[in-house]
Structures are given as C-alpha cells and as structure tokens.
Amino acid sequence: MAVNNQFRQVEIEVCAFSVESCLNAQRAGAHRVELCGGFLEGGTTPSAGLIETARSLLRIDLNVMIRPRGGDFLYSHWEFECMKRDVEIAKKYGANGVVFGILNQNGTIDQQRTSALVALAKPMQVTFHRAFDMTPDPVEALEAVIETGAAVILTSGQRQTAIEGIETIAELVAASAGRIDTMAGAGVNATNAVQLAATGLTALHLTAKTTRPSLMTYRQSNLQMTSSLPTNEYEVVFSDFEKIEAIRRLFLPADDAPF
C-alpha cells in the first residue's frame, strides 16, 4: 500500500483500556496512547496501577484520561477535587499528557476550571476531549478551549462519527489557524483515515476495538455482573494490532514508525 507523504505529520493516538492494548498500539507503530478505564462508560480515569504499569512498558507517549465518572461533563466540587488529584497522580507516574473536558450547565466550556487543570498539569500537555462535541456552538467552544491553554481538541465534529462530522472538523481546523491542534476521533479506521487527514488535522484517535471470548471454562449462567450494559464477563475487549497498523501504513512506512 502506498504511503501518503502528504500526511506524514498526522499522528496516530490509540485509546487503550488495558496493558495488552497499550502494547499492541506501540507494536503497530502508534505515536501515543490515551489510557482509560471504564470502557462501557466511554472512558474514565484509569487506576494508578494501570498508569504505572503502562508507563513502565511504553516507549511512546502516554496520555491519561481524567474523568471521575461516566455521564455528563458537569462536575461537582468533590468530583473536581478528584480530577485535580488524578492529574497529580498522572504526573507522578510520568504521563506525557492528560485528557479531560469540563462544561458549564448550559453546555459551554467551563473555562475557569479547565484553565486551573491546564495550569496544574504543566509541563504535561492537555487534550480537551469530546466533551467539546456536547457544546452548542463549536466555533465558540474552540475559542474558549484555546483561551484555557489546552494543546489539543479531540472532536468528531459534533456528530456520532468523525466522518459524519468531517465538514465541521475542517471548519475547526481552519478557524484554529494553528493556535491549537485538532484530533479527529469516533469511528476512525483505515477506510476513512486519509479523507479525515485531508482536513488538515494533526492527529487521528481510534480504539481499533475488537473482542475475543474469555478463557474461562466455568461460566455462571444465573446472573450477569454487568447489569443492563451491552456486554458480559465472558468477552474481552482490546485494541487490535492489525487495525492500528493498517492506519499507520497509510501515513508512515515501517522504517519511520515511532517504534
């Protein structure tokens, strides 16, 4: 497959929920891992043990999700206190960056709290995640995030998938005028990666999700620990090496991959 030299500066970030996924991302040539817990909640703060273990194994950059719970992005006083402590833990264990998003009740960017976490995170880089996509005006939100000092916005263009929101992503890239990096996420794959990259964004964010059956031989049939969520204990979710590598090949030859 031919490498698109036009997009050599496009980075690949893999959203990983396990050590296995982190290692698959590194082996496949990703530039960076976004480490999360809470897969079924869309990503929450990973445990200190997972952060420390991932950092010890990864030579590529490691960003840590800072999100105290699933659901909306309007946080209480104590939830915000937890976020501050989690930023400090990520810094302690050597993360390169942290990822979070905080909104006001009316859906606008909470600039005061976001700015406070950006300052606390230094020298780590800050990505404002897809809470951005829940704001009423993306251009207004872009300017607000830039003012906080965050380095990257992760967005699907306020649509369910990035390819559906590609026009808005292109508008955001143009409006940012190089003042902040734009990373597209949600439904990114080898089929649409080049089209998304053509917007001028700086990075692509993907989970490259796949599943395999659990190795458990005994299976309890009388209950399900995941309650009403759409999965069960006997399915393992992980980031697929081949899916990540397929995207990396679109932008970088093997000799130029980070690792």
Describe what you observe in this structure.
With 259 residues, the chain is α/β, with parallel strands linked by helices. The protein is 33% helix and 18% strand. It has one domain: TIM Barrel, CATH 3.20.20. The two termini are 19 Å apart.
Please tell me the total number of domains.
1
What is CATH's topology name? TIM Barrel
Just give the CATH class.
Alpha Beta
Q: How much is the radius of gyration in Å? A: 18 Å
Structural category:
alpha/beta
So what's the overall shape?
globular
Strands side by side in the biggest sheet:
1-2-3-4-5-6-7-8
Order of helices and strands: EHEHEHEHEHEHEHEEEH
Question: What is the helix content?
Answer: 25-40%
Provide a count of the helices.
8
Segments where pLDDT lies below 50 for 5+ residues? none
What is the mean pLDDT? 92
First-last Cα distance: 19 Å
- Tell me the CATH superfamily: Copper homeostasis (CutC) domain
Strand count, sense and barrel status of the largest sheet are: 8 strands, parallel, barrel
CATH A-level architecture: Alpha-Beta Barrel
What fraction of the residues are assigned to beta strands by DSSP? 15-25%
The number of E-state strands comes to: 10
